[in-house]
Specification:
Helix content: 10-25%
Region (Disordered): 134-187
Number of strands: 6
Shape: elongated
Distance between the termini: 113 Å
Structural class: alpha+beta
Strand content: 15-25%
Largest sheet: 3 strands, antiparallel
Order of helices and strands: EHHEHEEEE
Strand order of the largest sheet: 2-1-3
CATH class of the domain at 3-75: Alpha Beta
CATH architecture of the domain at 3-75: 2-Layer Sandwich
Length: 187
């Protein structure tokens, strides 16, 4: 079953006044003036997606009566044959692993994410590394390499024979022992 999306780029029905269309859309969407101003920014904004043909036509007719020209586009289904797609905002359990849902492998080690709405579409072309999810119980610590002994050239050094004078400063005569003749122990 084909799904459709409704997009608006700020175009008005011929003869419609901008202020009246803004007021109609504000009433229709129950939105404030700031959100309505975003609709008229000149960018193509997807208003509604995942509609069937009848729902898309109903939206188009309603927005046309409000004075806005919208674009109805068929969206190709990303689901493989036999897999049912759900409306936006509904979680559906999948047979694919969680790391692969909504993602398309672009190149080995690189990740390409399919945008879920117009805000995420800005990040569709971001080149990011694929940090997958490890299975339960896997060791996430990288293996530490064994420490390597530094390469030192010790060929110019030699050992002195045991008992040889190594150039120590000779010690002077020992100091006399302290005089303890005046000390007595009491019983």
């Amino acid at each position: 079953m084909a799904s459709y999306e409704i997009a608006f780029a700020g175009q008005l029905v011929q003869g419609a006044q901008l202020e009246s269309v803004k007021a109609n859309l504000a009433k229709l969407f129950q939105a404030d003036a700031q959100r309505i101003a975003l609709l008229f920014s000149g960018r193509r904004i997807v208003i509604k997606s995942n509609l069937d043909a009848a729902g898309a036509e109903k939206y188009r007719a309603t927005l046309e009566r409000a004075g806005a020209v919208v674009e109805v586009t068929a969206v190709p289904s990303l689901a493989p044959a036999g897999e049912v797609t759900a409306p936006a905002g509904v979680a559906v359990p999948s047979s694919r692993p969680p790391a692969a849902q909504g993602q398309v492998q672009a190149a080995p080690g690189r990740l390409k994410v399919l945008p879920r709405d117009e805000y995420m579409a800005a990040f569709a072309e971001v080149d990011a590394p694929d940090f997958g999810i490890a299975p339960l119980g896997d060791d996430l610590q990288d293996d530490k390499p064994q420490p390597q002994a530094p390469a030192l050239d010790l060929s110019q050094l030699s050992l002195a024979p045991p008992g040889s004078d190594m150039g120590q400063v000779p010690s002077g005569p020992a100091a006399p022992p302290p005089d303890t003749s005046h000390l007595k122990l009491q019983e």
